[in-house]
Amino acid sequence: MLVHFTIPFLKKNKTNVMIALIQFVIIFVILQYVSALLLDQYSKRNELDQGIGANTWTIEAAIKNIKDIDGEGHLTWLNTQIDALNKQVSPQHVSYSYIDYNQRSNQGYSVLYVEKKLYDRLAERLRLDQAPYLYTNISNEKIQSIHIGKNDFKADQRFLMADTELIDSLTNGMLQNYILLPTDGFPYDNLSVQINMFIYDLDSQAFDSAQLLHQLNSLNPRYEYSISQTIDSSTSLLNYSINDFLSYIFIAIMALCLIMIGFIGFLLVQFYEEKRNVQLLRIMGASTIQMFALFFIRNSLIVLPAFTVASLIGYLSLRTQYADVWIAMFSWNVVGMIGLLLLATLPSFIKTIQLNLIDNH
Amino acid sequence: MCLIELVNITKVYRGKNVETKVFEGISFEIHVGDYIGLYGRSGSGKSTLLHILGLLDRPSSGTVKFKGTDIGQIKAHQFSQIRNEHIGFVFQDFRLIDELTIFENVEIPLILSKQKCSKAVREQKVMAVLSKLDIQDKRNSYPQELSGGQKQRVAIARALVNEPSLILADEPTGNLDEQAARNTMQILSELNKEGTTIIIVTHDPEVKKYTDKVIDMREIVAQM
């Protein structure tokens, strides 16, 4: 029945309520996108943590000036840089992989050379302890028929075929089908390879990434180096700080919602007519619980239609891209919204409790 | 039977640097069935006294007993229940909610009541008081469609719907023309004859004619 009383409250401030509704739709759509991105990242990071291990970092090299590619090629990693890296991070935490573009199968498979430590680690993680180290159900004959790097590959050689997601995470999602071959040698003399350097089993506190980057950049000025945490394949290697940034945006939007709902509720009580009605209900015997329920319902009537519209927009636009996280995201948003409404009702409620019942007589 | 007992009531408003004493040491009793006029000029403290009687405000010192219960001993949240069940309020400016129909306005105390009643019972009670005040045909109208006199009838109907033992009317005729004021006072007199205790705050000497007893704020303040 209390819903009945909220109608006059809203009718009195029709324009303000409409503006608030539009603002909330926009905010909630942004909130849905940000939370979808966040949950997607966390979900994929968890996947990756299980696959490659937590606290895995990739150091990438990007050429500074495209004109520097002169056809002769050059090294993205120099000996001096490897030394600098090993000084900061124990070699047992460093590994690498590289692609040799000269070795490509005509059947769509490529070789990804993986440093032995990383190889063993992947084999262990992927539970590939059974001979002959096949990860997929592709037969030996099939593998042997893939004529990749005949010089490197032998029929009895230990190798891995890993799933697309894992391989993508190792190669920035550049190519799809790989056979992983272990190697003990760093390809200093091979100018046509792309090297991915990894640091694993180290959290961000265990090494000074800023100092390391400064050193790497000063030792090889043709390249710009960056360190990022391996997140997932579709977004390549997403920097950890972006993840934090999204979290901040998420928190900021939630805070904004809270302030807006609370403030609008509070403002509505300030209007003379509203104040008069609230006073009247209190005088007529409305209990504090009834007043809280009244404001909760009123705030819900302002916010929930906007939330519904935003959820619909979010569902239509995000359901394909973030299908895996959609239900989780929606559930969290609903729980968050109820919490938000309860919190946001407090300012109006407190104002009402403090309201002097005898003024304006 | 004593309905309200005031013992040595004092009310002081405290500002930042100023203290305003409205009245001091007031003691009197209101019995069931009384029809009392609180008479005085603007600013004499009559409304403040009415607010204390209506449990809208607490005295600075002294004791207020409502049906034998010292209200100083009960918690603030219980005030609302007492107001809802035992006291009906009538205001000078009617205090109707413009967006609700007359029926809905009168229904408010029933909805807020702890003793939940069904929609059918609410309908029955509301229509009974509307009929009693001869405004049943206005049930679907909105306050702005009514005259001042009719609005005050609605306000009285709302005050009566929970069958309170006390009606507090704050300048009920202040916004009415002569005829409407007379009608309102007659309605209140009839309600009093039916047993309802009524206290009217007024500065209109005409109102004194309808009440059984007058408490003159000037005399109270003079005793301070």
TrEMBL record, chain A:
Which ranges does the record mark as transmembrane? 245-271, 292-313, 325-346
- Has the keyword Transmembrane been applied to this entry? yes
Asked whether the UniProt record includes Membrane among its keywords, one would answer yes
Mind telling me what this protein is named?
ABC-type antimicrobial peptide transport system permease subunit
Keywords for the protein's UniProt record, in alphabetical order: Cell membrane, Membrane, Transmembrane, Transmembrane helix
The entry's localization annotation reads: Cell membrane
Alphabetized InterPro entries for the sequence:
ABC3_permease_C
Source organism superkingdom? Bacteria
Chief subcellular site? membrane
Q: How does it sit in the membrane?
A: Multi-pass membrane protein
Domain ABC3 transporter permease C-terminal: where?
249-346
UniProtKB/TrEMBL annotation, chain B:
Q: Where's the ABC transporter domain?
A: 4-224
Ribosomal protein is among the record's keywords: no
Listed A to Z, the keywords are:
ATP-binding, Nucleotide-binding, Transport
Which SMART domains is this protein grouped with? Answer: AAA (SM00382)
PROSITE patterns attached to this UniProt entry: ABC_TRANSPORTER_1 (PS00211), ABC_TRANSPORTER_2 (PS50893)
- Please give the InterPro entries that the UniProt record associates with this protein: AAA+_ATPase, ABC_transporter-like_ATP-bd, ABC_transporter-like_CS, MacB-like_ATP-bd, P-loop_NTPase
Keyword ATP-binding appears in the UniProt entry = yes
Read off the Pfam families from this record: ABC_tran
Q: GO: which molecular function terms?
A: ATP binding
Q: Which family does it belong to?
A: Belongs to the ABC transporter superfamily.
Protein name (Swiss-Prot/TrEMBL): ABC transport system ATP-binding protein
Upper classification of the organism: Bacteria, Bacillati, Bacillota, Bacilli, Bacillales
